[in-house]
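so i finally got all the pieces together for this one. its two components total, 223 residues if u count the protein bits. some of the lines might not be protein, just check the labels. i wanna see the whole assembly predicted at once instead of chain by chain like last time, that was a mess tbh
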Amino acid sequence: GQQLNQSPQSMFIQEGEDVSMNCTSSSIFNTWLWYKQDPGEGPVLLIALYKAGELTSNGRLTAQFGITRKDSFLNISASIPSDVGIYFCAGLFNTNAGKSTFGDGTTLTVKP
Amino acid sequence: EPEVTQTPSHQVTQMGQEVILRCVPISNHLYFYWYRQILGQKVEFLVSFYNNEISEKSEIFDDQFSVERPDGSNFTLKIRSTKLEDSAMYFCASVGEETQYFGPGTRLLVL
């Protein structure tokens, strides 16, 4: 089956620093989604990417859909304490109907 | 803003008992999903549902699992005879506008 490798597994940063995480896949996806999950809650969609090369921002978050369609990155600029959580990438092959394949997650800790 | 809702938020059950997890997807969405997340692990796909039938299922979704859309709004996951390893968060999701939206989850604990 499709596998996503997400890195890094965890990050410990100071408030104000920028953060970068990425996902790579052995096969192509037609949609990349980035989610944030707080403990005991469901994944909350941050950014959705639909075209290879697409670069999309949502406030301090920026994500890109890789040209090869096999990778994506998420950047967070000027981190704040509430950015703490687990960030997951997810790829869909069939955008409107298919399952999401999730990465293992990046656990972000922000020190004030 | 429309959202996916799930009930109950928590369920504790004895091994071997049946459980039914309920979801109300976003109203104009047509594709529905169940995922599970074992504590500390990633989200795993269980099953997708479209037009009143299963469109895809994973190897996790064995004969103990079933899904149903009993009316126009609810989408349920039934586990017939729960096992200890079924303890997890179960998330419902629905797709609309080319994006998948997740519910808040049901935490299932099997004792």
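The mean pLDDT of chain A is 91.
Chain A is about 0% helix and 55% strand.
anyway lmk what u think
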